[in-house]
Amino acid sequence: MCRLFALHAGRNRAKATFWLLDAPDSLREQSRREPDGTGVGTFTPEGRPKVEKQAVAAWEDRAFAREARHLESTTFLAHVRYASTGAHTFVNTHPFEQAGRLFAHNGAFGGLDRLEQRLEDLGTASLVRGETDSERLFALITAETRIAGGDVGAGIAHAVAWVAENLPVFSLNFIITTATELWALRYPDSHELYVREDHGAPEAEPRRLDATSQRITVRSPDMGDRVLVATERMDDDPRWRLVEPGELLHVGPDLVPASSRPIPRAPAIQLSLADLDARAAASQRPHPA
């Protein structure tokens, strides 16, 4: 199953070396089990998006470790890919960039021919460069955001509502970041998604956790004020909360998460693992603990 991780440090630029490289089950270690690509998205001090990604596992790329130690940003978005659609190529590797925003997705859905026609109608088909359902979903959100006058939350709500009403859906969990904002959606309940708020509270007594086969495990000795979103709890801190199905989370530079539930409770056509082809099903099945 693909892995998502995002960090928002508010107005302060931060590093993420620990979870990228040094945690017991870091992003680099995750790539040994999710081998189809690794990507990290950040923003420059001027607010321009910057994506470091490769269609090979991070542990195979020596440059990944060198670059990860120097990455610094107000927001981070990372993805470890287990492909459900599309070849193992650079253009199919997350995160994707459109209109100055970054996007990463964990899930699967069908009806791509119908979605492609929708993108043609809305004028964003040209934004898609690869083969994935994920990049097409992002292009739909970009189109709906433009129609909503730049309101990303409204764009997400309209795009996901259209997909839920018109396409067969297994999971649409995703994260979008800019230099100052973060949006995260869990929809419907096929995969878990967690959020943790750290607002100046001191770290508990240091804990050393055993790595597991299904986690990007994180414990930093100095988290500071920030909000984290991930596909799993990354340590045993009680501040981790499971995002509710249909919940859209928005975090701005003040680091105060706001939640809304603008999406229908369930897709019109809800897929199960048994409905997916063998490749997609393998990519969506969680690893055993």
TrEMBL record:
Signal peptide: none annotated. PANTHER family: GLUTAMINE AMIDOTRANSFERASE, GLUTAMINE AMIDOTRANSFERASE YAFJ-RELATED. Residues 29-49 are annotated as: Disordered. The lineage of its organism: Bacteria, Bacillati, Actinomycetota, Actinomycetes, Micrococcales. The keyword Protein biosynthesis does not apply. This is Class II glutamine amidotransferase. Residues 2-254 form the Glutamine amidotransferase type-2 domain. Keywords: Glutamine amidotransferase. The keyword Protein transport does not apply. It comes from the Bacteria. Pfam families: GATase_4.
